[in-house]
Specification:
The protein has 11 helices and 23 strands. By secondary structure, the protein is α+β, with helices and mostly antiparallel strands. The protein folds into 2 domains: about 110 residues, NE0471 N-terminal domain-like (2-Layer Sandwich); about 270 residues, Clavaminate synthase-like (Double-stranded beta-helix), CATH 3.60.130.10. The strands form 7 sheets. A 6-stranded mixed beta sheet has the order 9-10-21-13-23-11. The chain has a 4-stranded antiparallel beta sheet with strand order 12-22-14-20. Strands 1-2-3 form a 3-stranded antiparallel beta sheet. A hairpin with a 5-residue loop joins strand 17 and strand 18. Helix 9 crosses helix 10. The site of fe (ii) ion (FE2) has 4 residues, from loops.
Length: about 400
């Protein structure tokens, strides 16, 4: 959800038409008709005057326990020239808040909902209209770069065209999102290998899945840098985990609820001497019930560790989910070309590929990851330098159940 809005509406949102205070809080009526209430402890604990310090830098000179639990507002003053509200706490202590900051942090249900991106789920209908973007434009133009980040947030993926074809430049392209998160796999070379340990290194078809759900924090923004492509198969498949979840929720709400609640066991043991395991529900939701992520690797699920009453219903629910996925509902297929880079959120999208014939032509894809933290940071900074309100969006989407 982009929060683009005309400048005049933007200005109205942050314009105060009435300011009132009681001992215990602040009330603001905005020019667009909305109203906000801010409890005094919320205001005082957000104060960033020189004496209080800044929570954004974590250089704080006062602790919550040193503040009164219900601080009393002596006065509240609006300065229309600087769009600033000042709160006088007495004894010379003044807090100042920009009006757009107050509006951007309004505690009303409507504004809290407004700050949360609602991913528009997609299915097969986007097949003819995939989010392709030109690498040189995204790399060379700040607005195109922001559009790339927003598309990645809203659709969950972007395909960059005409990216560098050189093997050693994968990291440079990934830097469009942020610094790499390296795991034991490093930058992974996906190709048919003579003695493969994982199926990614084989030529077999792969059903839709998310990568590495056996980690506490699975890889998030994932890059498939295509260096060589098979002429005999090797097409990529993608599906939006949010749409898959919606399909299951509509058809079998109980199965969906169960897969949001009962942790599945994901594990992976490697010859190099590593044994990963994590238990988490397949679907993650936020506090508002919004689906925010998926983790699912059907081939890598161990026996569920759940109360007996949940065990058979769990397997029934997973079966229903997999039937939807295997049937190809909401799935798209795309043949990536050498020099293209598929960038996707592995905590939202599922991916797979058709089988290929490695003896007929070579297929080589390099894969690496960037954390959601890095991605969200890039978005926030891009909005901040443009003085845009989206800087205060709550970008919590992901597969983590915390
Ligand atoms: Fe994968």
């Amino acid at each position: 959800m982009a929060l683009d809005m005309p400048q005049d509406r933007k200005a109205t949102r942050a314009r105060v038409s009435k300011l009132e205070h009681t001992d215990s809080g602040l009330f603001i009526q905005w020019r667009d008709g909305h109203s906000s209430q801010f409890p005094s402890i919320w205001l005082l604990s957000s104060c960033s005057c020189a004496a209080c310090g800044s929570s954004e830098s974590a250089v704080r000179h006062i602790k919550l326990t040193e503040m009164p639990a219900r601080p009393v507002i002596v006065d509240a003053i609006l300065d229309v020239d600087t769009d600033t509200v000042s709160i006088d706490w007495g004894e010379g202590h003044m807090s100042r808040y920009k009006t757009d900051w107050l509006r951007g942090h309004c505690l009303s249900p409507a504004e809290r909902k407004y700050r949360r991106p609602r991913p528009a789920s997609w299915g097969g209908e986007i097949a003819g209209n995939l989010p392709y973007m030109d690498y040189a434009t995204v790399a060379g133009d700040d607005d195109a770069h922001l559009c790339f980040l927003e598309t990645l947030r809203d659709a969950g993926f972007v395909i960059l065209r005409d990216a560098p074809k050189e093997r050693e430049r994968t990291e440079e392209v990934a830097a469009l999102v942020g610094k790499l998160r390296l795991t034991n796999y490093g930058i992974f070379e996906l190709e048919a290998k003579p003695n493969p340990e994982i199926v990614g290194d084989m030529a077999v078809p792969l059903e839709l899945h998310t990568d590495e759900p056996y980690r506490i924090e699975p890889p998030a923004i994932t890059f498939f840098h295509v260096l060589a492509q098979s002429n005999h198969g090797g097409d990529s498949t993608l599906a939006d985990g949010v749409r898959i979840a919606e399909i299951l929720r509509d058809r079998d709400p109980d199965a969906f609820e169960l897969l949001c609640r009962v942790p599945a066991r994901f594990h992976r043991t490697l010859r190099e001497g590593r044994a990963f395991e994590y238990h988490a529900p397949i679907f993650a939701r936020d506090g508002d019930g919004q689906i925010r992520g998926i983790r699912l690797l059907d081939r890598g699920m161990g026996p569920v560790d759940a109360p007996l009453k949940d065990v058979e219903p769990f397997y029934d629910a997973v079966r229903k989910l997999l039937e939807i996925i295997y049937a190809g509902e909401a799935r798209i297929t795309v043949k990536l070309q050498p020099g293209e880079m598929l960038v996707f959120n592995n905590q939202r999208l599922m991916h797979g590929r058709t089988g290929f014939d490695p003896s007929a032509s070579r297929r080589h894809v390099r894969s690496c990851h960037v954390d959601l933290d890095e991605f969200h940071s890039r978005l926030r900074v891009a909005y901040r330098v443009r003085n845009r309100e989206e800087a205060w969006m709550v970008l919590g989407c992901g597969a983590s159940s915390a």
